[in-house]
Amino acid sequence: MNVYCGIDWAERHHDIALINEAGTLLAKRRITDDAAGYRVLLELFAEYGDTPEDPIPVAIETSHGLLAAALRTGNRRIYAVNPLSAARYRDRHGVSRKKSDPGDALVLANILRTDMHAHRPLPDDSDLARAITVLARAQQDAVWHRQQLVNQVRSLLKAFYPAALDAFMGKQHGLARPEARAVLATAPTPARAAKLSLPQFQAALRRAGRVRGIEAEARRLKELFRSDYARQPQAVEDAMGHQLATLLVQLDAACRAAVELAEAVEESFRQHPDAEILLSFPGLGVQLGARVLAEIGDDRDRFADARALKAYAGSAPITRASGRKKFVGRRFIKNDRLIAAGFLWAFAALTTSPGADAHYRRRREAGDWHAQAQRHLFNRLLGQLYHCLQTRQHFDEQHAFTSLSADLVVAA
Question: What is the pLDDT along the chain (412 residues), one digit of tens a residue?
């Protein structure tokens, strides 16, 4: 007898529903979100024929958390069903729009009973790959958070402290540079910056870790901060200085988090057997390669072919046709983290791979705008990556960009 399980996830408890192949409800239970509750769930599974060789498949609305981790042990297939998709299934059983947690668990179980073939189980990634996923996503979030804070600091400086923008925005990393943060922490207002002496500027630069050209940079900053700029009233300037000081504390923490997470990502990524293959591709460094690996995983059976991986990444176009109307455009349902890494990958590959640069230029000459050409290049690189991972080969420039036939395909 085939048995299917649906779990409605909540923060403190979970509702369980078990049904057979005819749709008959066999059991329902509410368990707590702790080790005792997980044991009750496993005992319930065993009562209805669950074995290590033939485990009961489970549908749940989340792929994260301790419950999902407990269920993923062994060969059990776990299906993470989008809550919006589950809501659409709920409408098939009634039009009253009633909703309850036990009812949602039953809906999830019925999804497996009727449409298991239309859903993909969670990938069987290794523990190392899942750890890289956690670290790479955290590092990516830290970078995004750092940039948000830099944007806030820039907007604030533009309102009362334009000299600071002229001092640091033209340099690499701009306001996120340690020197910029150290100097602005020492002088958070134009009035205080104008009073700083040359040794004070030098001390701030040394605290930031600078070892070369300290005297010349200190003289440049001193001259710049004593130049004639428009000023806010003193009371307003002091208030904005307090606001800047608090933002700098947050920015310092965000910069440290991004650096520490980057080091952790590099340490874990280099231990993975796929790291050498990923790093052999033009434009992929440690951090970007880790982000790509984090999103595609190392389960070789996760994607049926390269087209499935491209659709998952959102690099392949999608066709919408009805009657005489046909539209080919970009995908909106995709892995946003992977496509973000893909654009960075394609852009970096332009300067390191002659074939990638020629491919991009051909797409531009064919009429693609910049983002279209980048997405088309990422689409091709992703297909090559799929082949190399499946065959355990390194990237080969001569074989990767020999045929022009693929470049003539019109992409959205």
Answer: 689 999 998 888 999 999 999 989 999 999 998 999 999 999 999 999 888 889 999 999 888 888 888 888 878 999 999 888 888 888 776 667 778 888 899 999 999 999 998 888 999 999 999 999 999 999 999 999 999 999 999 999 999 999 999 999 888 889 999 999 999 999 999 999 999 999 999 999 999 999 999 999 999 999 999 999 999 999 999 999 999 999 999 999 999 999 999 999 999 999 999 999 999 999 999 999 999 999 999 999 999 999 999 999 999 888 888 888 888 888 888 999 999 999 999 999 999 999 999 999 999 999 999 999 999 999 999 999 999 999 999 999 988 887 544 444 434 4
SS (H, E, C) the chain: CCEEEEEEECCCEEEEEEEECCCCEEEEEEEECCHHHHHHHHHHHHHCCCCCCCCCCEEECCCCCHHHHHHCCCCCCEEECCHHHHHHHHCCCCCCCCCCHHHHHHHHHHHHHHHHHHCCCCCCCCHHHHHHHHHHHHHHHHHHHHHHHHHHHHHHHHHHCHHHHHHHCCCCCHHHCHHHHHHHHHCCCHHHHHHCCHHHHHHHHHHCCCCCCHHHHHHHHHHHHCCCCCCCCHHHHHHHHHHHHHHHHHHHHHHHHHHHHHHHHHHHHCCCCCHHHHHCCCCCCHHHHHHHHHHHCCCCCCCCCHHHHHHHHCCCCEEEEECCEEEEECCCCCCHHHHHHHHHHHHHHCCCCHHHHHHHHHHHHCCCCHHHHHHHHHHHHHHHHHHHHHHCCCCCHHHHCCCCCHHHCCCC
This prediction has a pTM of: 0.86
